[in-house]
Here is the input.
Amino acid sequence: MTDRTTYVSLAGLRRRGWSDAMVDTLLGQADVQGRDPRRMSPGPVRLYLLARVEAVERTPEFTGSAGAAGVAGRGSAMVGRAAENRRRAVLAAVRAEPIEVPRLAGPELERRAVRHRHLLGARGPGAVAAGAMVRWQVGYLCHALARYETLLDGLYGDIGRAEAERLLRRRVYEAIAAAYPHLARECGRRLEAER
Here is the structure.
């Protein structure tokens, strides 16, 4: 398993077989960008999360993009193809990424769900309405899994972002339902409400 805080530079991507056009097309914006204080180079340092790079490298879009990415940016048809390739790569990365739901004992999950609910501004503990605790638990787990939204970074407002968000939410709800069967009905209800 890859440490999610490990980064690859543009030079590192080139050593892995990436061209500059492929980086722009399939990865989009760098995860970290700035100046390297150790070097006098005026150019910015661009770093990409290794986990995101590896997820894209497992997609067919990565292996088949060398020709299309080499000419990306020449004309509107190429720009459209580059955006479509990026959309496909992000969707493939969302499909390929394993969603790891935190496994908590029932009382601990309830405690964290209540605490999360209070942090969101809910008033007083009071009596919990029927079904509310289940909704709170699913809400807390969705919040705990928000780190997977970094998979969508390649789609800044582009066509396909909504599709990728729906796919990611569906995968997150399915993972929660698999990890906590007593929450499956609420996960299904939320998926149905989104349709």
